[in-house]
Write a sequence for this structure.
């Protein structure tokens, strides 16, 4: 039976293991335990994990800046895909954001991850062609 619950720092090791085993996902210093603890504390109750019979089979991280929501790291173990788990995780995030008065959400997909791009487009998410994202890493650490 599927159980979706709020992600806690206790889930960190299992989530990182899932990320490492998922093609198309890039882990950075920003995915460290400390950084994840800050993210979860700054965005309480917005990130979720999915479990089946006690096994963590999916996750999604969600946050906001007060105006817009942001999704990161939506992952489902391959053997659990096509069962509605990803959709259920995203629905929880969007509902939680809506409860905070946030009705628009963004996400990033690596251009080298066409399966993720296909998933998001199939779910009605719109590819933005009117903006470019620029990043700056103050510390000089290109893996941040």
């Amino acid at each position: 039976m599927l159980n979706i619950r709020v992600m806690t720092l206790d889930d960190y090791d299992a989530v990182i293991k899932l990320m490492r085993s998922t093609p198309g996902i890039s882990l950075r210093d920003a995915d460290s335990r400390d950084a994840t603890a800050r993210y979860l504390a700054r965005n309480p109750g917005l990130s979720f994990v999915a479990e089946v019979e006690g096994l963590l089979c999916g996750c999604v991280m969600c946050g906001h800046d007060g105006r817009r929501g942001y999704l990161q790291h939506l992952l489902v173990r391959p053997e659990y895909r096509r069962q509605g788990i990803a959709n259920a995780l995203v629905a929880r995030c969007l509902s939680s954001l809506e409860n905070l008065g946030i009705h628009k959400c963004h996400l990033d997909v690596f251009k080298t991850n066409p399966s993720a791009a296909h998933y998001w487009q199939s779910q009605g998410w719109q590819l933005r062609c009117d903006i470019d994202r620029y990043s700056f890493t103050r510390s000089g650490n290109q893996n941040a």
Summary: DSSP finds four helices and five strands in the chain.
